[in-house]
Specification:
The structure holds 2 protein chains of 2 kinds. Chain A is mainly beta. Chain A has strands at residues 5-7, 10-13, 19-24, 31-37, 43-50, 53-56, 65-68, 75-79, 88-95, 103-104, 108-112. In chain A, strands 2, 4, 5, 6, 9, 10 and 11 form a 7-stranded mixed β-sheet that branches. In chain A, strands 1-3-8-7 form a 4-stranded antiparallel β-sheet, with no helix packed on it. By secondary structure, chain B is mainly beta. Helices cover 0% and strands 52% of the residues of chain B. In chain B, strands 2, 4, 5, 9, 10 and 11 form a 6-stranded mixed β-sheet that branches. In chain B, a hairpin with a 5-residue loop joins strand 7 (61-65) and strand 8 (71-76). The chains are: A mainly beta, B mainly beta.
Chain lengths: 113, 111
């Protein structure tokens, strides 16, 4: 029973490039959450999605960041024109139902040079 | 805005000692969760406490939820080096979906 999968585990980008982070939820889970963990800080909520719908994106920066969870395939967090301040660990979590336990993936560590 | 404050931020102890980590808020939470995170990995759920006053035990770990559901504690008895890690408390935000996390307690257990 595979857990939440994220890839890549590590991603290096130069300033101005695009970063695409992928998350495959646990089998049977249709709720996906993205969190960001900056160095020396706790996890901060970014966005909550269900299949084909963004439910809550109140934690996501208004510019350059977008997320999707298509009917088929993984959820994608996309960061356009990355800047050094985007360097962080990005975690995806999934749940079977809203308010149920969220299970986290291993994260993608993004480094912007 | 619901905030969770954890203390202490850092804790370094010797193997065999006992310790307590605290998670406090001025807001009421319907539940609180404790996670442990190791370097390079994602948070792993340890326990969820739901009822005010609830106490849950997981081997040498004891979790307590305050009567008013505004605070929680994690007590570790006879700590081992394998307990080293970042301990995070988290609670569901308004609407019950996203989690609000504390800043974490970095525990180091020395041999």
């Amino acid at each position: 029973n595979a857990g939440v999968m994220q890839n890549p585990r590590h991603l290096v980008r130069r300033r101005g490039q695009e970063a695409r982070l992928r998350c495959s939820p646990m089998k049977g889970h249709s709720h996906v959450y993205w969190y960001r963990q900056l160095p020396e800080e706790g996890l901060k909520f970014m966005v909550y999605l269900q299949k084909e719908n963004i439910i809550d994106e109140s934690g996501m920066p208004k510019e350059r960041f977008s997320a999707e969870f298509p009917k088929e395939g993984p959820s994608i967090l996309r960061i356009q024109q990355v800047v050094r301040g985007d360097s962080a660990a990005y975690f995806c979590a999934s749940a079977g139902q809203v308010e149920e336990t969220q299970y986290f993936g291993p994260g993608t560590r993004l480094l912007v040079l | 805005t619901q905030l969770l404050e954890q203390s202490p931020q850092f804790l370094s102890i010797q193997e065999g000692e006992n310790l307590t980590v605290y998670c406090n808020s001025s807001s009421v939470f319907s539940s609180l969760q404790w996670y442990r995170q190791e370097p390079g990995e994602g948070p792993v759920l340890l326990v969820t406490v739901v009822t005010g006053g609830e106490v849950k035990k997981l081997k040498r770990l004891t979790f307590q939820f305050g009567d008013a559901r505004k605070d929680s504690s994690l007590h570790i008895t006879a700590a081992q080096t394998g307990d080293t890690g970042l301990y995070l408390c988290a609670g569901p935000g308004l609407g019950g979906s996203r989690l609000t996390f504390g800043e974490g307690t970095q525990l180091t257990v020395n041999p």
